[in-house]
Amino acid sequence: MNPTLTTRMANLRARMAETGTDLVAIGPSSHMRYMADLSPHGDERPVMLLVSQDYAGFLMPALNVDSSRQHTDLPFFAWADADGPDAALEQLLEATSVSRISPSVVIDETMRADFALLLLDALPGAKRRFTQDTVGYLRSRKDEAEYKALKASHLLNDRAMAAGFAALKAGVTEIEIAAVINGFYKANGATPEFCSVCFGPNGAFPHHHTGATRLQHGDAVLIDTGARIGGYPSDMTRVGYFGAKPEGFDAVHDVLDRAVEAALAAVKPGVKALEIDKAARDVITAAGYGPNFLHRTGHGLGIDIHEAPYITGASETVLDEGMVFSIEPGIYLAGRFGLRLEEIVIIRNGKAEIFSEMPRHAVGA
Amino acid sequence: MNPTLTTRMANLRARMAETGTDLVAIGPSSHMRYMADLSPHGDERPVMLLVSQDYAGFLMPALNVDSSRQHTDLPFFAWADADGPDAALEQLLEATSVSRISPSVVIDETMRADFALLLLDALPGAKRRFTQDTVGYLRSRKDEAEYKALKASHLLNDRAMAAGFAALKAGVTEIEIAAVINGFYKANGATPEFCSVCFGPNGAFPHHHTGATRLQHGDAVLIDTGARIGGYPSDMTRVGYFGAKPEGFDAVHDVLDRAVEAALAAVKPGVKALEIDKAARDVITAAGYGPNFLHRTGHGLGIDIHEAPYITGASETVLDEGMVFSIEPGIYLAGRFGLRLEEIVIIRNGKAEIFSEMPRHAVGA
Questions:
Q1: What is the CATH number of domain B3-139?
Q2: β-bridge mates for residue A23, sequence order
Q3: Among chain A residues, CA nearest to B45
Q4: Under a CB-based contact definition with an 8 Å cutoff, are residues A269 and A352 in contact?
Q5: For residue B312, pLDDT beyond 90
Q6: What is the pLDDT of residue B27?
Q7: Superfamily of domain A144-364
Q8: What is the nearest CA distance from A120 to chain B, expressed in angstroms?
Q9: What are the chain B neighbours of A64 within 8 Å (beta carbons)?
Q10: Does an H or E element contain B158, and which?
Q11: Which terminus of chain B has fewer CB atoms gathered within 10 Å of its CB, N or C?
C-alpha cells in the first residue's frame, strides 16, 4: 500500500475508535477510491471494502479479481456468478472479527440499496450510520497534494469558462457553447464533468438541461461548468449577457456578489456551515429576493463534485482547516432570467481562499 | 401521461396485485425512466417515485421541481435543502394510503443506500423485496417499439465494430481503436456507452481497462462495445488477431462458437435461465476449459446494459417471449489471451433471434 493510503487507513481507524465504530463498509464509490485507490467495475455484482480495527478486505466478484489485483494488495473474498455473494461475505465478516451482537456499522450512503441491505441482513441488529464522521470526515479535510490538484483544476476551468463566453454570438445554441467548453477541456487533457449553459429564461431553472435554445439580443447567460484533471474536478458559475442586459440584471448581480462576499467573510474554522448559508441568504433576503434563492448556498467538492460539507441552513457541521466547498447563491426569476455566482473555496490559514482567479463581474458579449 | 406510460402504470399495478405488493419505490434510475419517462438530476438529494394501487407521486428536491415538471404530470412532494426530505416523504406516504403495519414494499435495488434506508426507516416492519417481479418483470418483456429500437441500435453497432477492426495496424493502441469506434458512434448520432479493446494477454482479464498497450504481430484482439441510440443500447463482443493467431486461438474460438450455438438452441419460452447457462457451459467444460469460463453466460439488456434476466447457473428465472439478453461465453488464458463471443438475442416467435448481423468468425488483420 502506498504511503498516502497507509496514512488514510490509519486515520480511518482512529476515527472509528473515536466514534465507536466496529465496521466501515465502502461500496464501489469515491470513498473506495479515496481509501484504496480502486475504482472497480460498477455493476449489479456486489463489491465492497470492509474495514475493522484488525482487518480490511474486499468482497469481490470473481471476474474482477485479476484486474482489481493490479491496484490493491488488500485481500479479496471472491464470489462467482453461479454461487452469489453470501458465502464470501460471511467469510469476510468472520475475518473482520466484527461483533455479531448489534455492531456499530458505517454504510457508504452512495452504495446501491441491494449492496447495503445484503450487508445489513448479514448483521441483524446493527446500529448503522453513514460516513459523515469517518470516511467523510477525512475526505472533507484536504491535504496539500489535494490542494494543489484542486488549484490546477480550477485554473484550467477559468480558461474554459473564458472560451465559452468568447464563443457567444447571435443564434448560437446552448449545446454549441457547451461543446466549445468541453472541447477546451479535452484539448487540455481534462475530462468534462458537466456543463450547464442557460440562455435567457432558461437560467431560471437551477437544473436546466442545456439544449437547442438560440442566443438572442438581450439574453442573460449563465454558465456552470467543471472538468476533472489530475483526479480532481473543478466547478464554477459565471454569468453574462448578449447585446444588452435584461431589466433588473445589474441589481440581481450586485446582490449575489455581495452575498458571496458576505459568505466568504464568514468562513473560518469553528464556524458552523449553517452560518455561511445564513450570511449569504441574509443579503439576498434583505434585498427582497429570499423566495428566489431556491437552494442551499453550497456543497463540498473533492473527488466528488458534491460531497461533504454541505452548506445548508440546517447543517451543524463545524468548518475546519482544509475543507473545500462552493459558495453559490442564486436568484431565479421565472420567465425572465436566473443568475448564480459560484466560487469554490478552501479554508487555508484560517480563512477562505478562492481557487478561481476569474473575476465575478458579468461578462458582456 | 402518454399512452405507453399509462399502459406501464396499469401493468405495474396488476403485477403489484398479483404479488401482494402495497408500495413500489423507484429511485432516479432506469426504472424511473421506464415508468415515468423522467431522468431527474441525480445527486445526494433524495428523489423517488412511490406507487400504490390508488396513488403515484414523487418525493422531489424543490430546486428540481420546475425542470422535472416539464416531463411528468404526476404530483410532486417537494422539499427544500433547509428542511430536508422527512416531512415531504411523510406527506407522500399519507397520500399513497400505504398501510403502516408491515406493508409489503418493493425497493428499487439500484437506488442509493441512504434513499432506501430513508424510506425503510419511515415504514417500520416493512417486508421488502427488490423489483424483480414487478417493474423488473415488466421491463424484461420488450414491446414492439423496444424491439425495433434495439434492432436499429445493434445494426449500427455492427458497423462500429467493423470500423474498429478495420483500424488495426502495427503499434496502434487500445485507446486509439476505442476512439475510432466511439467516433463512429458519435458521427452517426449515437452516444458511446462503453468500449473495451484488449490486445494480447490483456484479453485474459474479463474487465480489462482499455489502455496504452500497442498492437503487436501475433496478438489476439477482443472488442466488446456498445452505444445508445433512440434510447436503447447495443452490446456485442467479437474477436480477431493481428498478423497471426496465437497458439490455441482456433481451438478456443471454435469451442466458444459452439457454446453460443448450444445456448441459442436452448432458448425458448418456459425454459429456466440456468438451462441456457448450462448449455453454453457444458460445451466449454467438455472441451476442458470449464475453469477458464469465469463468469455467467449472459445478462438482460434494455434501457440498462445490464438488467434482468441474468443468465447464470443459479437463475431460476423462467424465460418468456420478449425477453432480451446476452449469450457471451468466454475463455480466459492468463498470460496468453482471452476470447469471448457475445450476441444479444430476443425471444421472438418462440425462439432466439440475434439482433446483430455480423458473423462470429475471427477477424484477421
A1: 3.40.350.10
A2: A105
A3: A306
A4: no
A5: yes
A6: 97
A7: Creatinase/methionine aminopeptidase superfamily (3.90.230.10)
A8: 11
A9: 206-207
A10: helix B144-166
A11: N
